[in-house]
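sry for the spam today, last one i promise. struct tokens for design, 252 residues
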């Protein structure tokens, strides 16, 4: 396990790492998740062997610190992720990023293009959206104190089911709420606008069961390769790991 400071208070973002050749492949989780849980079975596949691999937990999640005075916006998370990659000596990384983590990866690539050579975005959030639907969890529909101190977090854990709850209950409730609100708020320019403007190789994976990706034609016109993964929903790495591995390896 390795770590790097990401704020003035000395809070630390942490990751686990497997040695290998470059460019590094960096896995970034979604809201209320953890990178090893969602991606270790993918990175272990023979098709992906031999690469330096980092599993990063964003602030407030997994093994990383969860400072109470941190903003947890998408920009804040991207800055923390950059601190981790800088400390690890990573340049030109391939980021495999899921859902909210995909939005963070886009912001990072926009702000620090030298850190990113390829993006594999797994149903990444590209646009702001109403809080009532944030992340499919309803977290952002609560006021912060209601979520943290008056039962909101517990109600969400009951609603989302045991698999997601298994990692979400390891995350800090206040960090979850601020992250969900930041995700609903989005960025300026939007994540979609940033993605279109990037020059790195970009692949966007959409689960077939999630429906058509809005605005896919515009992404493809900007040379973002949009791949619909059969038989899968939001968690493509679990629903169709073979197709997921092929997309990450670039052999699909």
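last one done:
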């Amino acid at each position: 396990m390795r770590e790097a400071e990401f704020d003035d208070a000395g809070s630390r973002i942490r990751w686990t790492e497997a040695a290998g050749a470059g460019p590094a492949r960096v896995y970034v989780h979604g809201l209320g998740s953890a990178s090893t849980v969602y991606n270790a079975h993918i990175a272990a596949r023979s098709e992906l062997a031999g690469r330096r691999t980092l599993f990063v937990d964003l602030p407030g999640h997994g093994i990383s610190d969860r400072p109470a005075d941190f903003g947890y916006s998408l920009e804040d998370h991207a800055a923390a992720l950059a601190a981790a990659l800088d400390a690890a000596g990573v340049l030109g990384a391939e980021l495999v990023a899921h859902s909210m983590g995909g939005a963070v990866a886009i912001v990072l690539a926009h702000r620090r293009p030298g850190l990113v050579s390829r993006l594999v975005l797994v149903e990444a959030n590209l646009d702001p959206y109403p809080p009532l639907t944030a992340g499919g969890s309803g977290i952002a529909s609560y006021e912060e104190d209601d979520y943290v101190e008056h039962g909101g977090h517990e109600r969400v854990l009951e609603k989302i089911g045991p698999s997601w709850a298994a990692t979400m209950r390891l995350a800090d409730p206040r960090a979850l709420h601020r992250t969900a609100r930041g995700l609903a708020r989005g960025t300026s320019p939007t994540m979609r606008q940033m993605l279109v403007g990037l020059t790195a190789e970009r692949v966007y994976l959409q689960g077939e069961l999630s429906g058509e990706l809005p605005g896919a034609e515009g992404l493809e016109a900007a040379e973002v390769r949009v791949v619909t993964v059969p038989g899968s929903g939001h968690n493509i790495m679990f629903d169709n790991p073979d197709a997921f591995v092929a997309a990450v390896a670039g052999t699909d």
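DSSP finds eleven helices and eight strands in the chain. ok im logging off now
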